[in-house]
Design brief:
The complex is a heterodimer of chains A (196) and B (178).
Chain A (H helix, E strand, L loop, with lengths): L1 H18 L5 H8 L5 H22 L15 H17 L3 H9 L3 H26 L11 E5 L6 E8 H18 L16
Parallel strand pairs in A: 1-2
Chain B lengths: L4 H18 L7 H14 L4 E4 L2 E4 L2 H4 L2 H5 L4 H19 L11 H7 L3 H22 L3 H10 L3 H21 L5
Antiparallel strand pairs in B: 1-2
Helix pairs in contact in B: 8-9
Classes of the chains: A mainly alpha (196), B mainly alpha (178).
């Protein structure tokens, strides 16, 4: 059953990434250069919708709180994010969209994925050395959410705040930001996804 | 046909919610490690061994995914392959299979039409993106989308690092409109 869900939800994820232009390096590059923000608006709206449904679902008991999977906070998260950010801008691909682009017949994505497999392998090899630097030591409580989520096994950065309410408020904020953000800067080309 | 940001964002949000409701949050970059492990194990079968306590690896990092390497037909791997299938079929259905050329238009406008140059940029990009993602413990899907959707503090830290560098980099690299 889980494999069937993986097949259906995974395929839907890939199709949506394709239709919002996330697998197109030109669309991604224009978004990161802040010239065409249609994709940014879609991503922010998506996070808002997911936040709202997840925490409303938890409050009403529809969503199992046990499904939450919160990753550890450590200094390497920030450094790794910066490394990824640099070459995300350069190549126009992140791990997921690179694989999707490869499957969409983009030949440059083949080189991205090959480089990615090698980069992941380099990390496997350097893991002990990275660990020895202390960059992987938990900070801010490690696996924590912003507020305390009822029934969750994860801690909170602000234990006094109700985590589910925080999630819903944040979801509404994300949705509002998605609507307020301009699609493109004045004088620039329209932010629509080109047929390319 | 591409979709508007409203419909696209709503659908993307529903996909992330569906994954959370039914199984667990979406993540992609771990599977690069699993694929590496499968290839490595083909070359050197001693790297992941199945003992009394299940699959283990002599490599400390690979040990974390030893179970997936030993049995790759699992949720995470099938999810990634299905994502690729969905993207490929969707691109083909809107007549955009192949992306309309080897070199993306924005890249060509700024760095020229050389495919070798683009391939080198994409390869280097893949290397650093995945090294960074593994150092961070997740990528744009797992940390940023799934993480922030759960109000996870690490997700916000990751997004801050990624955009802090990605935005100025893109502004400097891509001055010409493609």
């Amino acid at each position: 059953m889980q494999l069937f869900i993986a097949l259906v939800v995974g395929a839907a994820f890939g199709a949506v990434l394709d239709r919002i232009g996330a697998t197109n390096p030109s669309v991604l590059g224009r978004m990161l250069a802040l010239r065409a923000l249609g994709l940014m608006k879609a991503i922010i709206l998506a996070i808002g919708v997911a936040l709202l449904l997840t925490f409303a679902g938890q409050m009403t008991g529809i969503v199992d709180v046990g499904h939450m999977s919160v990753k550890t906070a450590y200094v390497g998260v920030f450094l790794g994010g910066m490394l990824l950010g640099f070459d995300w801008a350069l190549s126009g691909y992140c791990p997921g969209t690179g694989l999707c682009a490869l499957a969409s017949g983009r030949r440059d994505a083949l080189f991205f994925v090959a480089g990615g497999l090698l980069g992941a392998f380099a990390y496997i090899q350097s893991y002990d050395a990275v660990k020895a630097t202390g960059l992987l030591e938990p900070i801010l409580g490690g696996k924590v959410t912003i507020g305390a989520v009822p029934g969750s096994k994860f801690g909170a950065l602000f234990p006094g705040l109700p985590g589910d309410i925080v999630g819903i408020v944040l979801g509404l904020v994300f949705i509002a930001v998605a609507f307020v953000l301009p699609e493109g800067r004045a004088g620039d080309r329209a932010a629509t996804v080109p047929a390319e | 046909m591409s979709v508007s940001w409203k419909l696209g964002g709503l659908m993307l949000g529903l996909v992330f919610f569906a994954a959370m409701l039914l199984v667990k949050p979406i993540g992609m970059s771990t599977e690069f490690v699993v694929f590496d492990g499968v290839i490595w194990d083909m070359i050197n079968p001693d790297i992941v061994v199945v003992g009394a306590d299940g699959p283990t690896s002599s490599n400390a990092y690979l040990n974390g995914v030893a179970k997936s390497v030993a049995n790759p037909l699992n949720y995470g791997v099938v999810f990634v392959l299905a994502t690729m299938l969905g993207a490929g079929v969707s691109a083909a259905l809107r007549g955009a299979y192949g992306g309309g050329g080897v070199v993306p238009s924005l890249w060509a406008a700024n760095f020229g039409a050389s495919s070798v140059k683009r391939f080198a940029g994409a390869f280097l990009g893949g290397f650093i993106v995945l090294y960074g993602a593994r150092l961070a413990g997740g990528c744009t899907s797992g940390h940023m989308m799934s993480g922030m959707s759960q109000t996870s503090v690490s997700g916000f830290i990751f997004a801050a690092g990624a955009f802090l560098v990605a935005i100025p980099t893109a502004m400097i690299l891509f001055k010409q409109e493609g």
